[in-house]
Write a structure and sequence with these properties.
215 residues, alpha+beta, 2 domains, 6-stranded antiparallel β-sheet, two-stranded antiparallel ribbon, elongated
Length: 215
């Protein structure tokens, strides 16, 4: 096969890829885009930002405030009173954990974020992580967790802004996060773009496991 023949094949392929309006052409374009994003663009962004997980889609409501900081600050929570949970407000919970209102208001994304948002991450070390940062870490769940750092000592403690208390169970212990679980910290929020991924995953789950949750 000479160069002229190869050039002809390449020209035909290019025409099929960009000019032909067929199902197969569209499918090939989607496959190529997926490969480029997953194996070139995504790792490249991660390299620049210093993390293997540069972008996450928020899949829960655990960091939502509802848009009004003062209303959220006075919303229900459960404070720890000698290892017994008692009703209180979010403000009471954070004050009990040495975080006052003005301090919280100085934190990044102090109004939280919503399910469906995209969060761009930066790499962070254990030593550089501060109270108020929004940490993404690996738990025993099948997906990373993104919650706010509420204390730091030999280990890290987090809490979802919307949650009434820290979660402590076999799969997720927010009171004991070690440095090897750190994946990155929140840097930029892109509202609602993550619903593209959420709906796609729900669609795949629906057709694969007959577990439709739409509408």
């Amino acid at each position: 096969m000479n160069w002229k023949t190869i050039k002809g094949y390449l020209k035909d392929f290019w025409n099929f890829l960009w000019n032909e309006d067929s199902v197969w052409s569209w499918m090939l374009n989607i496959i190529i885009a997926f490969v480029l994003i997953k194996f070139l663009i995504y790792p490249g962004i991660g390299l620049m930002l210093g993390t293997n997980l540069p972008v996450v889609a928020v899949i829960s409501e655990s960091m939502e405030h509802g848009g009004d900081f003062d209303k959220w600050w006075e919303s229900p929570a459960l404070c720890d009173d000698k290892n017994v949970a008692r009703p209180c407000t979010q403000g009471d919970w954070y004050t009990q954990n040495n975080i006052v209102k003005t301090q919280f208001q100085s934190y990044i994304m102090n109004n939280g974020f919503n399910k469906g948002d995209i969060i761009v991450l930066k790499g962070v070390t254990f030593d550089d992580l501060k109270i108020g940062d929004i940490l993404v870490y690996q738990s025993k769940l099948s997906y990373p967790v993104i919650h706010r750092v509420v204390y730091k000592g030999d280990v890290i403690g987090t809490k979802g802004d919307h949650n009434q208390k820290q979660i402590i169970d076999a799969r997720l212990n927010e009171k004991y996060i070690t440095k090897d679980q750190i994946l990155g910290k929140a840097w930029i929020k892109i509202p609602y773009l993550g619903y593209v991924k959420i709906y796609f995953v729900e669609f795949i789950t629906c057709i694969t496991f007959n577990g439709c949750t739409f509408g």
